Amino acid sequence: MGEYLLRRLALAIPTLLLTMSMVFILARVVPGDPALVILGDQASLEALAALREKLGLDRPLHLQYFDFLAGILQGDLGRSLVTGKSVWLELLSVLPYTIELTLAAILLGVLFGVPLGAYAAVHRNQWPDTLTRLFSLTGLSFPAFVSAILLLLVFAIELRWFPVISAPKMDDPLDRLRHLALPAMNLGLLMTAYVTRVSRASMLNVLGEDYVRTARAKGIGARAVLWRHALRNAMIPVATVVGLYLGTMIGNSVLTEIVFNRPGLGKLILGALNLRDYTMLQGLMVFFAGFIVLANAATDIAYGLIDPRVRYK
Amino acid sequence: MSATTAVAQAPQGWVRRFRNNPTSLVGLAIFLAVILAAVFAPWIWPVDPLEQDVVERLVGPSLAHPLGTDSFGRDVLARLLHAGRISLLIGISSIALAMLVGSAIGIAAGYIGGWFDAMVTSLLDVLLSFPTLLLGLMVVAMLGSSVENLVLAIALTELAPFARVARAPTIALKNRDFIEAGRALGFSDLRLVVVHIIPNLISDVIVVASLWLAAAIRTEASLSFIGLGVKPPTPTWGGMIREGFENILDAPWLAVAPGLAILITVLGINLLGDGLRDAIDPKVRND
Fold first, then answer.
1. Global pTM?
2. Is the pLDDT confidence value at A36 over 80?
């Protein structure tokens, strides 16, 4: 297992390097001058030159690239152009809100999605299955900000069950939960739709396997076959696919945070966009891309823990 | 030659399977209705989507304005119909671009193989690991938001799935006897690819296109909602929601109407895409 772990982690290094290079390419080589993007068309040539120098954009491209990589290696994502604060520290200060929201959504998604998908698979092509499929396809069709606005309208503005603006006091657990409820419900519903669909497909696959037929033939009760033999095996691909969903989930949480005006990475991105805070945007991209590469490696490692066959591939 | 005959026979089978699935037909009907509404917008509801009326601001639904008016007194129904044109234009163009470029990359990688394939595959993995919305957001933020740049940015986020779906069958096909036979007859690589490989993977690519069109329309709407869409006053669904959201307490219909328009469009395309996939791909027909 130790060897597998090292091998998989080593595999993440070139991917990480490639990913970071891609961020660099996007930020520097894409046609368009970052200094011009930041200062706008009206800026004087002197101001543009000064900003280019400040950002190191006047230096040769390969030196900029090495500086960029060296910075990342030292855990330095640069400083915000607007506040002058470290991008990394600004990121850390709102990260707990986003983590809280995403974990709650994953929890809801798995809690409701897995049983719903399994239930639909067992009752394949009957009306509970049709209803479930329609629900999950509708959920998958919702842009996150549209569902967020509908939830906000119904539960916060009409029924007044939850606060409209979601900036919780972090030291009051009850207040935090009240502010978390609607955003988490939004993200959780979308996640449930996805998990339901994946669980259903995976369960259908497993139900057709020989070992399930064997278990049935041995006279094991239908319930035991379902829970002990089918569902556990069906969950392995679900875990991987949920890992792949992280990218979509990050996009959805950004949109959700914006609608509910909730502090987090989403509002940080929006602020950086509005203020043309280019270093902040680049830092956030590095953070997200790095996070996804590491999360994928972690999913693979978890997969290896669950299923010994994977380790020897 | 067995593969070419299989392609020739395929349509009948999948058309029948597609027709027998009521949900796919509903999806097709919704998609066609949305396209017709967008194309014939000026005739269906002959009101200028840009005309402002300061007296009639934020008025609720009425006979004169079936979906009310926005904060500039513009007719929401007219804006909704015209916004559909932009959203569909960007969605369909970006998918067409991603389909052409992505499949070409995938076919090239699969056909050439070796280090080229290895390099392309790892680049695609990297592209896939980027959150779609953030990738689009970064590109549009750098390039500026115009229709062309949005198409480019959204196409970039959707290259990888096409390259993947085109690459795998190319690898399987290039070692088949009929390709070997073609090579022995002295056919050029280009001819082998165009005449013998592309027809064999086109149905897979079309399924991917129909499934990702929904995502493209959603991404465009999300970018517009964030403020990176086509510049106002041109109406887009995401942009209308962005403007409507500012008046959510007084005039909720401003955000709800375009929201439902996106939802219905995307749901229709998803139903259609699912139906096509179930009909065309026998492996997943049971899912």
1. 0.85
2. no
The pLDDT of residue B223 is: 92
Most confident range, picked from A276-285, B14-23, B115-124, B151-160: B151-160
Question: Burial of B206 by CB count in 10 Å (0-12 exposed, 13-18 middle, 19+ buried)?
Answer: middle
> What residues does A33 pair with on adjacent strands?
none
How crowded is the C-beta side of A192, counted as CA atoms within 13 Å?
A: 20
∠ Cα B215 B219 B225 (to 5°): 145
Q: Chain A contact for B224, CB < 8 A?
A: no
DSSP B52: -
Name residue A124's amino acid. Answer: R
Residue A57 backbone phi and psi in degrees, to 5: -80, -10
What was the ipTM of the complex prediction?
Answer: 0.82
> How sure is the predictor about B4, in pLDDT bands with cuts at 50, 70 and 90?
very low
Pair A168, A176: CB distance under 8 Å: yes
Give B203-222 pLDDT, tens digit per residue: 888 888 888 899 999 999 99
pLDDT of residue A63 exceeding 50, the answer is yes
Q: Which residues contact A31 (CB under 8 A, 6 or more apart)?
A: B143
Range with top average pLDDT, A58-62, A273-277, B47-51, B269-273 = B269-273
Per DSSP, the residues of B201-252 read: HHHHHHHHHHHHHHHHHHHHHHHHHHT-SSPTTS--HHHHHHHHHTTTTT-T
Domain boundaries, chain B: 69-282
Out of A142, A145, A293, the one facing B241 most closely (by C-beta) is A145
Q: Tokens for A90?
A: 């600004």
What φ, ψ does residue A47 adopt, rounded to 5°? -60, -40
In a mutagenesis test of the B interface, which of A13, A127, A133, A146 is the best target, namely the one with the most B β-carbons within 10 Å? A146
Assess B123–A contact: CB distance below 8 Å, yes or no. yes
B129 has a pLDDT exceeding 80? no
Contact present, B139 and A23 (Cβ < 8 Å)? no
CATH code assigned to B69-282: 1.10.3720.10
pLDDT band at B281; cut points 50, 70, 90: low
Interface of A with B in 39-78 (CB under 8 A): none
A204 neighbors B283 (Cβ within 8 angstroms): no
Residues 6+ apart with CB under 8 A from B37: B44, B81, B84
| Amino acid code (one letter) for B266 | V
CA distance B244 to B255: 5
Backbone angles phi, psi at A86, to 5 degrees: -65, 130
In three-state secondary structure terms, B16 is helix
Query: What does the mean pLDDT of chain A come to?
Result: 82
In whole angstroms, give the CA distance from residue B76 to residue B61.
Answer: 9
